[in-house]
Amino acid sequence: MVILLLGGTSDAIQLAKQLIALNVELIYSIAGLVRQPKLNCKIHSGGFQGELAKYLRNHHIDLLIDATHPYAINISQQAKQAANEIGIEHWLYNRPAWQKTATDNWNEFSNWDDLLTKVQAYQTPLFTLGQKTLEHLNDIPQQQFWTVRTAVKNKVSHPRLRIITAIGGFSLDEEARLFKQYNIDVLICKNSGGTLVSSKLLLARQLSIPVIMQTRPVIVTTGKIFTVLEEIVYKIKERQKSTLQ
What we know:
By secondary structure, the protein is an alpha/beta fold. It has 2 domains: 2-96 and 218-244, Rossmann fold, CATH 3.40.50.11190; 106-214, 3-Layer(aba) Sandwich (Rossmann fold). The protein is built from 7 helices and 12 strands. The strands form 2 sheets. Strands 3-2-1-4-5-12 form a 6-stranded parallel beta sheet, with helices on both faces. Strands 6-11-10-7-8-9 form a 6-stranded parallel beta sheet, sandwiched between helices. α6 links the parallel β10 (186-190) and β11 (211-214). The radius of gyration is 20 Å and the shape is elongated. The chain starts with a strand and ends with a helix.
């Protein structure tokens, strides 16, 4: 059995290591924009340029596992379509969303216009949405100064913009220094989810700083959906046992 694992997240790395320990034939795929993983398996870097189905055929993939970021809708849609096209199994790992507590001040937004309306009341927002924020620099109000943190280097500039190029995760102390240095009064982020709440959300909770959080995309898939990594590993083990019988 040959497995193609679409990765780029810490969850995908964890899953890859567990599958490698099972001696499965694994190909780990990553866009390659930020960093390359150190895994003892074949790594495909750079995407598929719209030819994922062709890649699946040429490499005799039996199972496609999508463990990309919950907001990586494009590649997830491509994965579903490619798997259906050539008739192989498609599994999706959808890590659980973070849940608001009684001490959180969270407000959701669904699109950019919605976000602009909700951020108007603040002066020094911190954006952790990735590259997309830099497409909207003309929307920076006169009274605001934006801090944008992204993992990819950029050359864009604006008189009321600060870009921080950094790769997480970040400790609570690191986030505290950043919030204090730039007097952050609101956090804009995605509900990336996972077993641990991110340090930036914990800090916002401690400091009573509002959070404006992007709504989770709706998942539409024809394959199996998993919310626990161990369930995927268990299914692979069961499949290995059945082939030996």
